[in-house]
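tool_call: predict_structure(chain=1)
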Amino acid sequence: MKPIVALSFFLLFVHQIAISQANDSGIARIITNIRQLHELNPSEKCFLHTDKQFYQPGETVWFKTYLTVNDLPVVLSNVVYTDFSDATGKIYAKSMWKAEKGTATGNIFVPDTLATGIYRIRSYSLWMLNEPTTINEQFVFILGKKDQSKSYHLPASAVKVTFFPESGSLVESIENSLAFRITDVNSVPVTDVTVDLIDETKKVVGKPAVFENGTGLVKFTPEPGKKYSLLVSLNLNNRQTFPVPEIVKNGMALSVSNLSASKIFVQANASEKFMDENKVISVVGQQYGKTVFTQTFNFDEAQNASIINKKTLAEGLLQVIALNSQLQPIAERWVWVEMPVTKNLTITTDSLSFEPKGKNKWQLNYSGTEIPELSVSIIPADLPAYSFVSHPDIRAYQLLHSNNKQPGFVQNNIPPLSAELKSLYLDALLLTVQPSRFSWQQVSTGKQPDLRYFFETGISIRGTVKKDKESMQFDSSKIDIITKAADSSTIFSTAKLDKKGAFAVNDLHFRKQASVYLQATNKEKKKSKLEFELLPGYLDTLGNKITPASFRPAFKELTTAKDASNNFVKNYSVSALGKELTEIVVKGKNKQEIRLDSLNKTLTSDLFRESEFTKAPDQNFGYISFAQLFEQEFFGFRFNTGYEKIGGMDGTPASGLASGDMISYYLNEQPISADELNFINPNEVVLVKVNRNANLHLGQMGPGPSVLIYTVRKNYNRSGFEASQLTGYSIPLQFYNPDFSRSELRNTEDRRTTLLWQPQVKFENGKATIRFFNNDYTKKYKLVVQGIDQKGNLYYLEKIIE
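tool_result:
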């Protein structure tokens, strides 16, 4: 019998080796699939820092976007889109911005007609549309003109609790971690609650840690046969119990502890039956597709724990997956790895003034090795604030906008906590989010997701030949493309036709709008007039409706506590919009405005048609600059400081600002900045319109006075070209930072609600100077600084200065 026994043991040994080799091969395949999924589908995010989260109609939203790839400021896309809508998805503004070195600055005009409500600003790249849940959504509250004296709140509503067991289910007789989220029916976190874990006899068996945003975590060991509930107490008269998820007898809990500053502890606790059925499991850890940890746990040999050294990790998300012997997922766990970094961001006030129009000079101090990219906003600290508005900071955004199911309310910020409590909070937060990007079927099979959108490094022109394809040799024929932008700049490009008659030119950069002219050249280098179909750019295909917001809390008017709203009305309310174009001064008798109906109707749209003064320049006069054209045609008008150097309130040239009023400049009904005026070819100007008073219909550039310029478009069609129109980049405005040291400006009333917006911060020897003037009423300031450095370290500084 001994040889037979020996042979049996040998065959069993060989069988186990075969299983082990198969598992090793399967794990290697899974690791390869994870890497390829992440490499071919990089995770791009686009955080949007706005100057504030409360606006009035007629104001401007100032913003800066931060693009990251796998949570690092790596450049993938150079084009950023923003859209501004209400909660139902009705669009009020859409824009395309050029990103440079991973950032873009811009602005959104808040229409004067908007009603009180929560509005949504989205920022994203074209590539991010492949994963719509990664699109950044910031919500802002707009107080309508009719409701300036009102305040609003979120009425008390029913409380609900959503549970998230650490490994998907609770297992009896072993320690479990249970995360939960306490919200109201609007999905807004409920705060100021007391929470206890109780058993069926109402005995307290655990004291959960509950954080400011309603996210909590409790650890406990369920006893066999017992049931448990979460007791939530809002006050003595309002206590509710919520049963925890069903507790199973057979299962495993994957515990991942992130409390240590240098190590992550991974432990698998399982029931006896589970360990009999799964003697060996595999555990894999990955960050952004890179496998950082693999381990086999053998329950028979009491091998059920391991350590991941943080030195081998990058800051950011870490996924830990447990697999059984058939390589099926048992449990999944996500943690946020935060590496210790020597960095410090502080603010000191060299000159602090709360006097009306008082001058402030502050200093932003940074101590660290990597100089961060930062943006700064300063607003009155007593502006209305609404806690039910979802408006996350850059740290909360990086954590939460990588999940495959976006929560309705995103935490506004990460609360300041001790190191241990912060780790517990991040663990609880990620348990409630589960930021998986790929399904297990994709991971196991390696199937790539369908991609509908490509990443953009610039503006693309794409199209196809519609007819007469047989006359072209697609391997040698080419398409000549002339792109003439609204600012008169011209780009010449050439593209080859593929076998299907398609062509493309990438990485173009033009602002506002461009006319695109196409012409074919065959292999004999002869011009050939063909019919083309030019595909519109993404911005040109957008409709006026997007998906409604999932976050739509039902706020109501607050009938008490009128003092705060009365203070707002007194100090900051925009009682009347409309400014006089004082930069253009009448120094002689105005000529009677000549109505040019035919030209006006041909060139202008309805919104721009009516104006104070309209002129068609004398085409026989050989103007050498637009400045000369303007002075000659609009006799009696002049620019006070000279046209080539329009003096703004901050003393900078070509700022487009004048005596406290912002002048809107338009070229072919597309907004331009003042520094572009000198590049307009005067021989192409066919119509100029001037409005000295408010023009609220002029959306993007604001409600102030305006100068509208129309140019002729060269007709290339005579030589075989076919023209189409494409939209280009929007042009960011310069923030108006008044210099009240000028005596002539101190007599005007100043009710600004954004005192400073500085999208670029320049450090010298770790110090950056911040200068601004107070308005007439603010007695304390709110400072917010946000940004990121090249290593992906996130910066957020919020401070009330009084």
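agent: The mean pLDDT is 81. Proceeding to next step.
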